[in-house]
Write a structure and sequence with these properties.
Layout (H helix, E strand, L loop, with lengths): L12 H26 L19 H4 L15 E8 L5 E10 L4 E8 L7 E6 L2 E6 L5 E2 L3 E2 L5 E2 L2 E6 L5 E9 L2 E2 L2
Antiparallel strand pairs: 1-2, 2-3, 3-6, 3-7, 4-5, 4-9, 8-11, 9-10
Amino acid sequence: MRLPSLPVPRLPRPALVALMGLLLALVGAFGLIAAPLFSVPTFAASRAVVTCQLQVDAKHCDQQDPRAQQCVSADIITTTVPLADLAGTIVGRLERRHSPHCHTWWARIYDDRQQHGTLLLLQVGTRHFSLAYSDLGGYTDMLYDPSNHNAPLILGTLTTPQGKPDPLLIAGIPAGNAP
């Protein structure tokens, strides 16, 4: 026996195209919402950066940038000496900086002459640094001191615009025991 057939109305072509577009839009929206839930997490982005401030040892502190290692803070102890020309005019200053927390020492020098092309020459202990002129001065990498009491010799020299050390513009802070 044959079942009676019922006529099924057919959708007009534009309505069918519109429904297919709506279905694709819904699938796409679901994909955008659900994709992050199924993605593989990236572990590199979540790895913590270890700085000298967090891990005080030679590996994280010696020969490192004091700013990048978060050792520039309120507890910094600074010893400053002026750099003066023959007339006694202060043309810069030299600093020995010490971070008791990070067990480190570094030097900073300022050249107030505003002569571009000069160099800022620094020595921290036995390490030598030659820095390009900057209105903000220049500073060296840190010297790690596990005892926290062996203040290194700091020497600073400003150069002529030709880059030669100016023998009149040399200052030093002697090595010694820190408080």
